[in-house]
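Structure in, sequence out. Go:
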């Protein structure tokens, strides 16, 4: 696909990393705004420097095959989200389209005829441009599943190829940066096989979010982890494939390029009510644990609800799966923490995957009020363990201040500049605003290459 490279500023920074994992794609949901009190999350809670991409979930498709918002205030939230690009010009935003009506995906009718697909593509491009998004995220769960026919595997391939062609053409016509095209895809092997013609879709997608979570939950009779890295010795039959290693290995064996696959990281856990006194992995369960006070969904807790619970609970590590669970009384929760994220990052790097995607920002302790680990403890740690440079801190807008750093960029062209006061940092100017960026530990900034390097 025809595409401009990443902006040089970013390229220079990334050249200092050895890992190929260069994307940190974070999802947010437009239903998180309805959680009470400190659980309420809107797009203005997003840290513009935390992720490389933010995906806004969720838009949908109406019966006229047109892309439409799903919430009364979506357009306000789109503005909040896309205004973050004024603060971090490297941030990319995508709109996710999916959902279902009575369990039926709106993609089914839309892909069924070339004319319907053409209407959708036209509406999607116009909607994305009007609202200042950088791309589209297809969230059809799943072709060939839940009322979708086997032939939808080919219809999905057609849709992806046609969208790519339309995005290339639109970028040529308007001389704008081409819109990104991405998809959220299944992690279960039988669903992958039914849903995707991988060699046909992969070349047209910028990245592929493999939803490597929800492997296990209260719908099963025994406790097991939501998002294990490997199989456990108590797994049998098809359960042997319910883990990250099996899913990603399968995507790779079907021909997906490693650098387009993004590993899914969950900022939530799945809970069970224990049947008896056994509280180990594989203990008998009677069903979902009680709903959390903020997410209010039986069987699922946000990380910030988990972290209140583990205070006083017994916390255990599953060595063969590299993930933790916690238990107290009849409650059992399998969740992710800094250690399991680090183990997954190490594995992700060993497979040279393109990066990580996170479901979701709003389920992490986004404000830091619950866990006392700072804001976004899981995603911040993920970012750090992926080797991204520390986040820049945006100084206040250069209004009346006389601070020489804050006003440095006033009247200067966009670009990178030396910070004579501190060589371990440098100054990035964008639209007259100064951003102080920090080199990786041990490196200093050289203006000759506009890069950080060893002293
Ligand atoms: C990871 O998956 C591959 C492919 O299925 C398999 O051969 C390998 O044994 C798995 N590794 C572990 C530690 O389970």
């Amino acid at each position: 696909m025809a595409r401009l490279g990443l902006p040089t500023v970013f390229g220079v920074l990334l050249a200092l990393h050895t890992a190929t994992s260069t994307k940190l794609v974070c999802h947010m949901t437009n239903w998180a705004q309805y959680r009470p009190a400190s659980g309420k999350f809107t797009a203005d809670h997003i840290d513009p420097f935390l992720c490389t991409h933010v995906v806004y979930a969720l838009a949908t498709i109406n019966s006229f095959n047109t892309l439409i918002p799903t919430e009364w205030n979506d357009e306000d939230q789109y503005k909040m989200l896309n205004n973050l690009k004024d603060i971090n010009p490297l941030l990319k935003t995508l709109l996710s389209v999916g959902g279902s009506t009575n369990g039926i995906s709106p993609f089914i009718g839309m892909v069924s005829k070339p004319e319907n697909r053409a209407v959708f593509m036209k509406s999607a491009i116009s909607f994305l441009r009007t609202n200042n998004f950088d791309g589209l995220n297809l969230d059809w769960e799943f072709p060939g599943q839940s009322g979708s026919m086997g032939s939808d595997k080919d219809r999905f391939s057609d849709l992806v190829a046609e969208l790519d062609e339309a995005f290339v053409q639109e970028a040529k016509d308007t001389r704008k940066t081409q819109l990104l095209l991405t998809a959220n895809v299944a992690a279960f092997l039988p669903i992958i096989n039914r849903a995707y013609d991988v060699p046909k879709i992969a070349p047209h997608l910028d990245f592929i979010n493999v939803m490597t979570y929800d492997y296990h939950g209260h719908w099963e009779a025994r406790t097991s982890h939501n998002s294990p890295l490997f199989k456990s010795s108590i797994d049998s039959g098809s359960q042997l494939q319910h883990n990250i290693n099996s899913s990603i290995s399968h995507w790779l064996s079907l021909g997906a390029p490693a650098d387009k696959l993004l590993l899914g990281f969950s900022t939530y856990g799945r809970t069970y009510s224990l049947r008896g006194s056994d509280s180990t992995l594989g203990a008998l369960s009677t069903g979902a644990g009680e709903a959390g006070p903020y997410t209010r969904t039986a069987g699922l807790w946000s990380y910030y609800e988990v972290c209140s619970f583990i205070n006083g609970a017994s916390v255990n590590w599953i060595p063969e799966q590299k993930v933790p669970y916690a238990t107290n009384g009849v409650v059992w929760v399998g969740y992710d923490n800094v250690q399991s994220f680090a183990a997954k990052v190490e594995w992700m790097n060993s497979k040279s995957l393109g990066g990580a995607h996170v479901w979701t920002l709003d389920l992490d302790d986004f404000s830091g009020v619950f866990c006392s680990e700072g804001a976004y403890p899981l995603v911040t740690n993920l970012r750090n363990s992926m080797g991204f440079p520390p986040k820049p801190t945006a100084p206040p807008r250069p209004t009346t201040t006389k601070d020489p750093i804050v006003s440095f960029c006033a009247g200067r062209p966009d670009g990178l500049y030396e910070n004579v006061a501190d060589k371990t940092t440098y100054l990035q100017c964008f639209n007259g605003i100064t951003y102080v960026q920090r080199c990786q530990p041990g490196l200093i900034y050289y203006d000759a290459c506009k890069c950080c390097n060893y002293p």
